[in-house]
Each structure stands twice: as C-alpha cells, then as structure tokens.
C-alpha cells in the first residue's frame, strides 16, 4: 500500500460516490453508507430520522471512508476523514448542498427538475455538514501484482 498526499486524498473524496460513516450511537459503533458531496472542502449529506441523525445531534464526531475501486485492474484508493458534524440551518449553504447532491446523483434520482431543491427526497429532511479536521489516504500501490494487492478479497 502507498500513502496518498492530501491533494490525492481530496481527489478520492471529489470522485467518490458512496462514503461509509461511523458514529458512536447508544455507546457502540454504528456504520452506515451515505451519498455525499464536497462543499467548500468539507463533506455534506442529507439524512432523515434514525440512529445516524441522533448521533449527530448528540455531538458524536464522525469518521468517514470513501473507496474508489477499479474492477478491471483491482486497484483501489481510499480516503479517511474525521470531523465534527453539524446540522445546517435553512439558508444558502443548505440549498447549495442539496443542489450539488441533486446534480451529482441526477442519474440515480431522476431529473433534478422534477422537484424543487427544498423538497425532501425519501424523507431526507436534514443536511449535515462535516468539517474535516483530519484526512488520510492510501492506495493499493503500483508495486504489487493484481492478485497480491492488499485489500483484495
């Protein structure tokens, strides 16, 4: 494995589709996948009621991992971030985050013109902003064969 520079790690975040977010909920680790966007060099995502949102409201720091995997070569790169989440109040930053999400995931959600940016999609009513405090990145590296790369099943 090889360490990534901060700019390479940010590129992984910029191009990632899904992150896995860990929080402490009811005294135990809780990990869930999220769709996200980068917003001013930090992360933002929409969520609805549940353990994830409860943990954010209780002030739990978060740890997120994004992995980009090439199914042809077996190469992968991953970014890990730590940060303090906050629920965004209504306003320009929240609207921008939702607009970015609709644009990023338009092929999954359908046309962004079919509903307004204020419309909750599937009960996702809150936007959480995660200010990144620390980042770390790694890749499968270039010196190993496809079959022997760490992280492969």
Structure description:
It is a single chain. The chain has 153 residues and is of the alpha+beta class. The protein has a single domain (2-140), classed as Pnp Oxidase, Chain A (Roll), CATH 2.30.110. It has 4 helices and 8 strands, in the order E-H-E-E-E-E-H-E-E-H-H-E. It has helices at 6-15, 51-57, 92-104, 106-109, and strands at 2-3, 18-25, 28-35, 37-39, 42-47, 62-69, 76-87, 126-139. Strand 6 and strand 7 (76-87) form a beta hairpin. The radius of gyration is 16 Å and the shape is globular.
Strand elements, count = 8
- Helix count from the secondary structure assignment: 4
Strand content: 35-45%
Amino- and carboxy-terminal Cα gap: 15 Å
Task: Estimate the helix proportion, in percent.
Answer: 10-25%
The CATH superfamily appears as Electron Transport, Fmn-binding Protein, Chain A
| Succession of helices and strands | EHEEEEHEEHHE
Structural class: alpha+beta
Overall mean pLDDT stands at 86
Return Rg in Å. 16 Å
| Tally of individual domains | 1
Low-confidence residue ranges: none
Largest sheet: 8 strands, antiparallel
